[in-house]
Amino acid sequence: MSIQLYYQDVKKGDELTPLVKKPTPRQLVMWAGAVGDYMPIHYDQEYARSRGLEGIIVHGQLVGAFLGQLVTDWAGEQGALSKLSCSYKGMNYPGEAVTLRGKVLRKYVRKGEHFVECSVRAENPKGEKTASGTATVVLPYKDDYKRKGRTRRWARD
Amino acid sequence: MAETLSGIAKLKGKVGVAWKPREYLIEGEMIRRFARAVGDTNPLWKDGAIAPPTFTLSIGFEQFVDDLMKLTPFNTVLMGSTEIESYQPMKRGDTITVVFKISNLRERKGQTGQMAFMTFESTYKNQEKALVAKCRQMVIGY
Q1: ipTM > 0.90?
Q2: Residues A4-56: pLDDT tens digits?
Q3: CA-to-CA distance for A67 and A65, rounded, in angstroms?
């Protein structure tokens, strides 16, 4: 894990460190098992084509989980993803790279917590947007951190 | 709409009605398996003690989709959107109670025939009755 990001470190327009994934059919099967999504369009080529698709497609929710990882990787161990919202605009196919990107939209303080809202998106190798939305994280504040140590939200009991 | 979709009628009666609550005991291996499936090596969830926020997607989803598909004439659903609100992380040893509800249903005729846009919401409470997460997702059945 990289160095912890603090609320004060972030400014509007900052780019999140991009994340590149290359899901394989094996990963789709792993995801299917982990969440219990057994729609055959994610593992049966013939069936996927019969449903009007080019072939098996990456689960939308897996792309959503990739976006979650983009944000939690960036926010660090003391950060917390409080909201992730995305719409799926196009297909990702296994074997092709999925590039996850994000940008800081705004930052604000509410009830003593330090929020950062980002736009997030997934792209296929052609650079086309296959998913997009927003993510809100709570980041630690430097003075808070010195005084209290680990933030309460993520403290391990 | 002149045409009524058979099967959709059944689903229409379900809009706004909460599914019966289902309970899931969160085991460390469920969390680790989820993180491996995503390829997420964050040390926060590596030992299976704390779940990533998107882990919420795995709780009760299979059973809900099974129920949903029985009520529709569709063969396939595609995900349209996902929204997760996380209030605290799910942890190993938690017992999570999830309640699903269809909040919106729209139908139309698409290129491949009948389609429906189904929005469903789910809430997740832990053993202390604290709300840990909420989801809202839209799926397209065709």
Answers
A1: yes
A2: 999 999 999 999 999 999 999 999 999 999 999 999 999 999 999 999 999 99
A3: 5
Query: Nearest CA of chain A to the CA of B94: how many Å?
Result: 13
Query: Which residues of B lie closer than 8 Å to A, measured between beta carbons?
Result: 30, 33-34, 36-40, 42-44, 49-50, 52-54, 57-58, 61-63, 65, 75-89, 91, 111-112, 142
Q: Which range marks the domain in which residue B118 is found? A: 8-25+60-141
Give a yes or no: residue B43 inside a domain.
no
Look up residue B79 and give its two tokens: 């995900």
Count chain A–chain B contacts defined by CB atoms under 8 A.
127
Which CATH number is B20's domain given? 3.10.129.10
Residue of B85, B101, B80 lying closest to B135 (CA atoms):
B85
CA atoms of B73 and B76, how far apart (whole Å): 9
* pTM of the entire predicted model: 0.93
